[in-house]
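Re: the request from the purification team.
They wanted to know what the chain is likely to look like in 3D before they choose a buffer screen. I agreed to run a prediction and write the result into the notebook, where they can find it.
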Amino acid sequence: MTKFGLKIFISWLFGTLLFAFPSFAAQIDGLRIGQNSTGARVVFDADANFDYKVFTLSNPNRLVIDTQNVEVTSKAVNSLQKNDFVSNVRTGPTGVSGVRIVFDLLRPIVVKKAFMLKPASGFAWRFAIDVETVTEKDFIAQVGNAYAFNSKDYQQSASSQSVAKSSSDSAKKNALRRRIITIDAGHGGIDPGAIGYSGTYEKNITFAMAKELKAELDKNPHYKVYLTRSRDIFIPLRDRVKISRKNNSDLFISIHADSARNRKATGLSVYTLSEEASDKEAAALAEKENKADIVAGIDFSKEEKLVSDVLLNMAQRETRNFSSEFAGLLSWQMSKIVKTVSNTHRFAGFAVLKAPDVPSVLMELGYLSNPTEEKQLKQKSYRQKLVAAAVRAINKYFENNKH
């Protein structure tokens, strides 16, 4: 064999061995899904960063992840647990050296974002996909490559942000910036809100709680806290939303105290935004609170909306996810110290929660129509317990969302 022929043979043999024993850029060996009432986060555990493209397909409805030079182990495929969003998961080849991961969907969803998480807190690399439940019509409108999320877009965005930050001397300050929290004391002025068993005004309870919560949060140098009202005045609901957005808030908490015809009704509850209330009680409560705008003689429902419905729905997909996360933390902390209603985290169409870009919750401290809870809510010592629980939830929320 000539040297030329030997060189060709070696080249052929080397290429054959490469295909026989592929070298993967990363390996996925874990899969889990965390879900809440409106969406879910799909998380893949990997040993390295990798490129991806995420999109949905219909007929049948599927969530698709295309990867390059990635090995998906049987352990990862078999670790899928029962959930409300996806059923079967399978893999197959795509392109020259790609692997396609396919989830069969149990309900229509949209992908809100897809991103890699660097190793931290004992975890290796993680690839996360946030999805949210939508109508079948909205699902069909956003299937295919045109709506795909891919690593190149994410990296370019991250790179642009990095360049912008590095051009400023305040880069570190931005990374450690103070979190802005707006606390809304419900009702006020000519709108007393609910009137308790012995005549207690809701507006006074909410204002006391709001001031006490602000005072406790002000002790943390990482927080900047605002009140929507600092005295007994009436503020239209949509103006409260505007105040929160003007403050560039990272979190908005509206404080209320409920009433009911049944004086035996008791318990604290936490609400996040939903166009369809979780139950009739939540829908009725939202309708009652939203009518507060008419109390001052102005019907704000006839004004233009804060943003168009389309833009509102797009922006709130992200915001609702964070709102639900905080509501879950708040409900859990409260349930450990006071009585809460069943299904503590509820959903309703409160106008005050409709900021499209600020995670927002409405907390009903209890029922003023119940003699016992009315008496408790009038006591500063009782409210201080609620304040402490709320602060723990807020701290945990921002700890989970440092970005």
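For the purification team: Confidence is low (pLDDT under 50) at residues 1-21, 155-175, 297-315.
Please add any questions underneath this entry.
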